[in-house]
Structure formats: C-alpha cells, structure tokens
Specification:
Blueprint (H helix, E strand, L loop, with lengths): L7 H8 L20 E6 L3 E4 L9 E5 L14 E5 L7 E3 L6 E5 L5 E3 L3 E3 L4 E9 L2 E10 L6 E4 L5 E4 L9 E5 L10 E7 L7 E3 L6 E3 L5 E3 L3 E3 L4 E9 L6 E8 L3 E5 L4 E5 L9 E6 L9 E6 L16 E3 L5 E5 L5 E3 L3 E3 L4 E8 L7 E8 L2 E5 L2 E5 L9 E5 L10 E6 L8 E2 L6 E5 L5 E3 L4 E2 L4 E8 L6 E8 L5 E4 L6 E3 L9 E5 L10 E5 L7 E3 L4 E5 L5 E3 L3 E3 L4 E9 L2 E10 L2
Parallel strand pairs: 2-10, 12-20, 22-30, 32-40, 42-50
Antiparallel strand pairs: 1-3, 3-7, 4-6, 4-9, 5-8, 9-10, 11-13, 13-17, 14-16, 14-19, 15-18, 19-20, 21-23, 23-27, 24-26, 24-29, 25-28, 29-30, 31-33, 33-37, 34-36, 34-39, 35-38, 39-40, 41-43, 43-47, 44-46, 44-49, 45-48, 49-50
Length: 580
Amino acid sequence: MRGILVLGALAAALTVSGAGARASGSACPTSNPANELVLAGGSGQTAQLGRPFPAPLQVRLANSNGCPLTGNLAGYDITFDAPGGGASGLFAGSGSREAVVGTDAIGSATAPTFTANFTAGTYVVDARSDVGTVAFSLSNTGAGLSAAISAGTGTPQQATVNGQYLQPLQARVTDANGNPVQGAMVIFSIVIGPTGAGASFLGGGQPTALTDSNGIATSSPLLANGTPGKFSAVASTDGVSGVATFSLDNHAATRTLTAGDDPTQATTVGTRFGRPLTVRVLDSSGQPLEGAPVTFTLGPAGGGGGGGGVPAAGAGFVDGSSQSTFLTDQNGRATSPRFVANGTPGVFTATATTAGATSPVSYRLRNLPARLRGLDISQQATVGDPYRNRLVARVTDQHGRPVAGTAVTFSIGKASNGATASFPDGTFQATVTSGANGRAIAPALEANTTAGSFTVVAAISAGTPIRFTLANHAGVPAAISVGAADGQSMPTSMPLPLRLGVTVTDAYGNPVAGGMVVFTAPSAGPSGLFGHSRIARVATNDKGIAIAPPFVANGDAGGYAVTVRAGRVRAAFALVNSRP
C-alpha cells in the first residue's frame, strides 16, 4: 500500500544518500519512482547459536538509474524470509522465520531483531518486495558457546579421613567445535556417598570458578570428612545439560604396603630394567585402596656418590628424575614408570612410600657390568702405512644382547722399542659411543716407522677391558749389511773360517724378518760351493739376519766376490782363495 503523496523535493532530498551514482552527464527525470530493492545493512554477519545478530537487517528502495527517488516511498511491504530448515533463525515479534515490515518515508525498512537458531552453518535471508528481491548472507556458529563439560585433574583420587585431597578439582568447558570456552561459570558440588563419606571445599559453601583461556575452571581445595568410603563431586555450567563427575574416596588413616612383584631385579649398566616397580596399598581391614598416592624413589638419593668420590650404583626414570608419584588403581596397585641403570655396577635400593603406611617397601636392584668383546683382535700393517681394518669393540649385556650408547675408550700402547700407531689426529686415545648394534668402531690407525708388536686397550667405565694385539712389520728390504766374513782368505779347497752372514733392513732401519736372501758364488774361476751348490737361499730371522751354509773354496786360487741379493737390494763379500 502507498500513503498520501508528499512533496517530491523533500523525498528526493531524503533519499539522495541512498541512491546510486547517476550516469555522468545525464539529467534525472522529474518523476523517478523506485524500481529495485537494495541492501542497506546487516549482511555478512555471524551470531552464536541461540543469540541475536548484532546488527539489524535493513533494505531500502532505489532506482537503477541512480537518481533520487520521487513520489511516496512509505508503505512498501518488505517480506523478510529465513530458511525453513537447517541453519536459520527467528524474528522477534512474530517468533517465526518470516517478518513483514513497511518502508518508512525515506524508503527504508528494518527487520525485527533476528536470532540464530541452534544449527551451525551459513545461509541467506531473502527480502522481497514489489520492486525486487535481495539476500542477506548470514552464519550461525557454536564457537565460544559452552557445549560440553568434562573432568580434568582430580579424579580419581583419595585422601585420608579429615585430610586434604592432594589435587583440587578441575573441569574443562568446550564449545561445539571442541575448543576451550573462556569465562564460563562452573559450579562444583559434592555428592555424599552411601556410607556418608564426603568432603567440603576450603572456605565452605558451593564454590564457583570461571574458566581460563584453556577452558579450565579450578575448585578451591577439598577436605575429606571423617567417614571412610567412596563418593563423588560434580561440575556444571550454564547451557550444558550434562555434568563432569569426579570419583573420590576417603580412606582410613592406617595403610599397609606390599610389593606387587619380585622386589629384586638386575640389568646391565646403561640399560633399562626389565620391569617397573609395583606396590599394593591396603587399608586397615586389608581392602585395596584406590587413588592412594604412592611415591617411588630410586637410589642413590640425589645422585650421590659412593666412597672416595666414586659414583654409586643407581638408576633414573625415563624422564631423568629419581622420584615419581602415581595413584593406585581399583585393585590398590600402583606402578612406577620404567627406569634405566646408571653407569656404575653395584647393588642399590629403591623404595615405595605412601602417607599412613607404617613402613616403606624396599626393592633390591643391581647394575651388572657390561661386557666387551673385540672383533679382529690381531692385526698387522707395514711401518708407515695405515692398518687395513679399524678396531671394533662390541658392548653387550649379560645375555649377549647389544648395548647402545656406551662410551668405549681405545688407548694405544707402545712397545719397548718404540713401535706403536696413532689415530688420524695424531693422538693415542679416542672415545667412541656404541651404536644400536652395540659396536664401537675406533678411528683409523696408522703404524709408525718402528717395527714391533704393541697393544691397544678398549675399556668402558664398568666392565673388563679387552686388548688388541697389533704388529708393525718392516717394509721391503732397503739395505744389506755384510758381516765379518767379508775380506776373508782361505786356502784352495778349504772351508771359509767364518760363515757368510748379512743383516737386511728396510728404509727406516727396521730388520726385515722372513725375507729371502740369495748368496751366489761365481760360476767359473776362483769360487766355492755352499755344500753342493754355488747358490744358497736363506730366510732372515726376526733380527733380519741371514747366515749362509758353510762355504768351501774351489781349487782355483785368486780373489772373487760372492754376491748377496734381498729383493732389489744387492751387496757382496770379497773373498780370496790362496795357495796352500
């Protein structure tokens, strides 16, 4: 419906700001009625489920030519229509998804307050009129609204009657997307158990707490009453139908501790013990206590040392600590984390304690020495050259299984004559950590220039060391020194008074052992024989000395030379056969 005509000039003045820009250089018509509907505000909003959108939905009349409107702009019926299913909302006043609003004197229409329903999602609300239709894009979200509450720390747990519970109660509030809700009010309440067991909050009354940025609300401390038994506490918050439940138990003051398994164990240093520590907690009537805090402590306390400053045998939990507290289960059983022996062999004690127990439970634990085994323990190399194979020591436990992460130190010895070797950096000691296969591989070794045997010792902090026997062998013959028989004279057909002997050495002056030396007498003229041959082949002994068989002069008088050859090196003896 349309109202009475108002002055066109006034209507035009009121609608100038809402009209689109007219075409450049074109004049606006004298009569310019509305022929379209445009959005004036409210599109693109998001509201939480069940809550109103912050800005109203608004439309206005306009003409597609961009010129000010003329005529009566009031009384145009605008129908706002939200979806009938899924994400949508309701208009105030009508309480339905549809609202009809008339335009005002300047052609604007504002819908009643629009409230999101309880379905999350994006949707459109149409605004329809005789001159056109527009759509508002809206979204409903559950973000930031309390949708669930759950128990955090503080359940299950127990306390001695009339004592304080170890932990306060904590409840976590989340929205529909599982994200924490900050600032939600949480109410904590005690539900008395069938035996009358219960508790009160420090300060009295029913505590409330606001959730923090993590959605966590924490109660005030909780004090057990004087009645043993099980009971519960609940936490609730507005907008969530369910509650978070906490299981609590008041126990009598007297308790008994017993070891849950064999209290004796052993393992190799640096390895994990086979079982965690276990204990059972019983009340005065012999019934298991659930939720009792049990503290396990590994020796030595604080990592103390043994006598004379030597580290003592001990162990640590896998997180590096020596003490850990756990609650007992419904069978009264508490189990420690896994723990690892330190690097010192020996026997030590671990304990389990709980409040109210007359005595702790003790566990006798033992760290066994690791074992070392050498691979390829005898090797040899030529002086001045690297050893072909690296030294390998394998670390194992008492069952022969490899132990990783053990530091193995290789120390190179020196023979009395100076024979030795060194690592690539010129040092005589190197520490290597064993790998997953238990093997520690030393750096490469290089022989020095002195021939001889020496040892390399591999050792770990706990265990018997092993020894590698290495030998620097002399290099190829580089020199032959002839002995005292050089320059001798003997009658023809008579034996040489002194046997021919030589010493063979390498380039560094080391005697060449086991080298073949060839003695050769002339084939004609003055000469002689080694037995029945003019040639004798003799191996050098460990001092590099080779002594030829007895040499007998032939019947020709005169001087001559017996040559000596070792490898590519040659020498000679000057001899004389004289007339008798």
